[in-house]
Amino acid sequence: HLGVAQDRLNDKRVLIVLDSIDQSIQLDAIAKETRWFGHGSRIIITTQDQRLLKAHGINHIYKVEFPSAYEAYQMFCMYAFDQNFPKDGFEELAWQVTKLLGNLPLGLRVMGSHFRGMSRHEWVNALPRLKIRLDASIQSILKFSYDALCDEDKDLFLHIACLFNNDGMVKDYLALSFLDVRQGLHLLAEKSLIALEIFSADYTHIKMHNLLVQLGRDIVRHKPGHQSICAPGKRQFLVDARDICEVLTDNTGSRNVIGILFEVYTLSGELNISERAFEGMSNLKFLRFHGPYDGQSDKLYLPQGLNNLPRKLRLIEWSRFPMKCLPSNFCTKYLVHIDMWNSKLENLWQGNQPLGNLKRMDLRESKHLKELPNLSTATNLENLTLFGCSSLAELPSSLGNLQKLQELRLQGCSTLDLQGCSKLEALPTNINLESLNNLDLTACLLIKSFPEISTNIKDLMLMKTAIKEVPSTIKSWSHLRNLEMSYNDNLKEFPHALDIITKLYFNDTEIQEIPLWVKKISRLQTLVLKGCKRLVTIPQLSDSLSNVIAINCQSLERLDFSFHNHPERYLRFINCFKLNNEAREFIQTSSSTSAFLPAREVPANFTYRANGSFIMVNLNQRPLSTTLRFKACVLLDKKVDNDKEEAAARETNVFLSIREKDKIGVDVSCRPAYCFLVPPILREHLLIFEFEADVTCNELLFFFGIQGNEAVIKECGVLQL
């Protein structure tokens, strides 16, 4: 009977383990109160549902984390090879499977046993299926948690698994579909089905485990209550590229489809979408086309145009959209987010459309965009991003109605190569919005007047504009933390500005020396000198200076400044080939976070040096799980066979990966996680940076990689600090 535990154990000192508790009645029957047991007793409960613990007043809660990447790797190997390391030739394959399983011990055990005894050829053949299909034994266990949810929470789970994993705007997108999205997310988190990272009241990042994502997508593939596979066009969500291609070319989508997530960049060829592709999908709410990205050619085409887009769309993401205008019957009533990067749009829609739900509009790099629609009804719009819209000549006066607008980015509303002039000459005069935090007018070359904006502004970027005056009232803008300006000699007439400017940009000026009044800019943090061909010396400036960037300053020889106590310092001297030895020594040896300068070899003070992009480092003593500090350097050179004109304006990514010997595939944790954006160079340059790494081994492999075709790595070096 239910009182047996209390009757028999109330005077005994006992250890009780209650495993996999999922219902409150189980705790009520066996261990409702601690006084049921003798003094010194211990009760251990395991559950996926934190609410059960809180409901019973249990405050000592330990959240079991995933094993580390290397521990997971060893666990998988124990099941697959009966030892904690892989057989020869299986190292990378074992690491791939471990990553796919997301370090979940259940998956590591099941799939390790599955692969045991297989040949390498069998492993290779099995991997593609593992990426998209869940093993039946894993699925049966994970599905218990899903089946215990109510219908609405099941629906929310499937939305996240199929569309919104690693997203932060789910509450906005789903507000019209669920009674209380916030509560539903917290319930899924308490049941350990998702993890939430709250950055602000409006942004909560959602992370779902890889295997749970596969579970959700597998549930959607099957007919409700059946084992048979549902035809792609009849499913609730479409996420498989092959299924999506079939639906978009054969017009087989139905009213069942409410969301499409298409990783376009994974396509090997091109796809011609039917003009009637969306006609049957009357309930489609979420359309997400990701890619192609930089360096990839266009992949989606609409040879016959597009008859319509579904009227209930709340989210549309479609980079490189190939039409000049959205379909004439496009409905904006439910639209929350429109994201059409690098599109061929010239305009979006005509007339005054209902935009009461719209919160974000991102049209960056849409070089053909000539005008924005009337936004007077977009009273909830918070972010408007238009940088790189080189044909945009004016902004609608309706911007003055956007009382919730927090960020307006117009950066680069000029020709991309800056050879022409920006077509945007002025902002609307009624843009004095109390909510606006961030205004970026960088490279809007014809903007001459200081913008009439709210004094609540926090970040104001005015570099590469024609603005020459700063209002005296700016002294009272208590929220302003960042003001970026271009150099002009008129600024010295506005001493109030010299107390506020944080970044100053010199571009193609004929100056031979930095004007004395620049030293009076008391809060100057970043100095940018681009194309200052006659400048010879950089003198001592404000004590607050921590970043110096000089690009194509062909006469620059001396650096007569020093840094004060700044924890982060950045020095960039690109194509400044006349720097004297003292200047080069200062750049290389100053305790800067990172530095970049012309050089022909790795400095001799680096203990470990090697040709190429990787180097093995043997530490003096074996560290026992400790944090060490290093300085690394990479010698880069312009790629010899790179004669494309566009390469001159393209940047290169340089990244670092560290692995401990014998731990194949497991990257060492670095702080910060380095990935450098390197501008175009004319010949050899040296990149130097410092970082911390958590290591447990005295043999480390440092690998430096490049993303892009504009530079090559000639040498590298490492120094333990």
TrEMBL record:
NB-ARC domain mapped to chain residues: 8-84
Task: Tell me which EC number(s) this protein carries.
Answer: 3.2.2.6
Q: Which reaction does it catalyse?
A: NAD(+) + H2O = ADP-D-ribose + nicotinamide + H(+)
What GO terms describe the biological role, i.e. biological process, of this protein? defense response
Pfam families hit by this protein: C-JID (PF20160), LRR_3 (PF07725), NB-ARC (PF00931), WHD_ROQ1 (PF23282)
An example molecular function term from Gene Ontology annotations:
ADP binding
What SUPFAM superfamilies does UniProt report for this protein, alphabetically?
L domain-like (SSF52058), P-loop containing nucleoside triphosphate hydrolases (SSF52540), Winged helix' DNA-binding domain (SSF46785)
The segment(s) forming the Disease resistance protein Roq1-like winged-helix domain are 152-222
Record has Metal-binding as a keyword = no
Question: What range(s) does the C-JID domain occupy?
Answer: 597-652
Gene3D superfamilies associated with the record? Helical domain of apoptotic protease-activating factors, P-loop containing nucleotide triphosphate hydrolases, Ribonuclease Inhibitor
UniProt keywords (A-Z) are:
Leucine-rich repeat, NAD, Repeat
Q: Which PANTHER family match?
A: ADP-RIBOSYL CYCLASE_CYCLIC ADP-RIBOSE HYDROLASE-RELATED, LEUCINE-RICH REPEAT-CONTAINING PROTEIN
Q: What is the protein's name according to its record? A: ADP-ribosyl cyclase/cyclic ADP-ribose hydrolase
Q: Which organism is it from?
A: Arabidopsis lyrata subsp. lyrata (Lyre-leaved rock-cress)
